Amino acid sequence: MGDDDLAPAGVAPGATATLSSRPRMAVLGAGHTGPVIARVAMAAGYPVTIAASGDPANIALITDVLAPGAEARWAADAVTDAGIVVLAFRCTGSRASTPPWSPASSWWTP
């Protein structure tokens, strides 16, 4: 039995069980990608907040089911104390309006 077998439930093998030792991650976006990123980050030992474009109450069920343990917040509150911010939403509009740092800056035609 190795050290990885001793990981607490909900923590990935090899991850630390102490959430306070890792920076808080804010995931902006609660669609297809955001809850998955939140769940994987929590399994790796990161405390996670998740936000969408509106009231956190609107994503409470999504958070409870798809990313249990993540805290739903208003976007401004989620990023305030975050050491890591993940943008998990689709940037819409023209290519000219997409920030160059955005993952959506690599446009393709479906």
How do the strands and helices of this protein lay out in sequence?
Blueprint: E1 25-28, H1 34-43, E2 48-51, H2 60-66, E3 71-72, H3 75-80, E4 84-87
Q: Which properties best describe this structure?
A:
alpha/beta, Rossmann fold, 4-stranded parallel beta sheet, 21% helix, disordered N terminus
Describe the structure.
The structure is a single chain. The protein is of the alpha/beta class. The chain has a domain of about 60 residues: Rossmann fold (3-Layer(aba) Sandwich). Helices cover about 20% and strands about 15% of the residues. It is built from 3 helices and 4 strands; from the N terminus they run βαβαβαβ. The protein has a 4-stranded parallel beta sheet. Helix 2 links the parallel strand 2 and strand 3. The longest helix is centred in the middle third of the chain and has 10 residues. The chain is globular and about 35 Å long. The N terminus is likely disordered.
